[in-house]
Each structure stands twice: as C-alpha cells, then as structure tokens.
Design goal:
It is a single chain. The longest helix has 15 residues, at 24-38. By secondary structure, the protein is α+β, with helices and mostly antiparallel strands. The protein has helices at residues 3-15, 24-38, and strands at residues 44-49, 53-54, 60-61, 64-68, 78-82, 87-88, 91-99. The strands form 3 sheets. It has a 3-stranded antiparallel beta sheet, with no helix packed on it. Strands 1-7 form a two-stranded antiparallel ribbon. The protein contains 2 helices and 7 strands, in the order ααβββββββ.
C-alpha cells in the first residue's frame, strides 16, 4: 500500500525541469510579489468576534448557570445551563494588530 501515491508523486516531481539559470532567490522574490499583489485588503486584522455573552444583568462570561432546587425533599441541587436571553459580546479590538490568516507571505527567522 502507498506505492501508487509514491509513484504519482515521483512523476510530478520529475516532470519539472529547471533548465533556466534564474537564481532561487529571484524566483522566490517574483512569486512573493505576485502573491502579495493578488491579495486584496490589508494584511492586518484589528478586531475579532467575541466569544463571550452578556446576560440580563449585564454580566459577561462564556457560560451562565443557575442553581435548581431539588424536586423532592432531601435531593441534590443541580446547576442548569442558561441559554436564553444572552447577547453576544460583539467585536473585540486586539491590543496589537495580527497578520491576516490568508496573507500569502511565509515569515521565517534563523
């Protein structure tokens, strides 16, 4: 098993011929400038969608629970998750801008 995949990969790799004398640095530079030119928008992200919610009292949290009394005398109290009447937090600003996930540059440091 796996021989077919290896055979296909070898055919693809061997089909490229590098007969031109262009340096690798030049090829990478041309590819990067073309990729950056095709990217639409700014490479920075300044906000994200918040993952928390506001409840009726204005409290902010990821989840809300309420304590439920037992149905019978002597039973244990339970925590019930609240899912109604919650408002999403909305957009949250980053303190430091982030790079967009689809920005076509590979950052590398030695």
């Amino acid at each position: 098993m796996g021989q077919t995949g290896s055979r296909v990969a070898n055919k693809i790799a061997n089909s490229f011929s590098f007969s031109e004398s262009a340096s690798d640095d030049y090829i990478v530079e041309v590819a990067n400038t073309a990729a950056v030119a095709s990217f639409k928008g700014t490479p920075f992200v300044f906000t994200r969608r918040g993952s928390m919610y506001f409840d009726e009292d204005g409290d902010l949290a990821h989840e809300f629970y309420e304590e439920v009394a037992p149905k019978r005398k002597g039973g244990k109290r339970k925590m019930k998750k609240i899912v109604k009447n919650l408002k999403p937090q909305g957009e949250v600003k980053y303190q430091v801008p982030r790079l967009h996930v689809d920005f076509p540059i590979i950052l590398f440091s030695n």
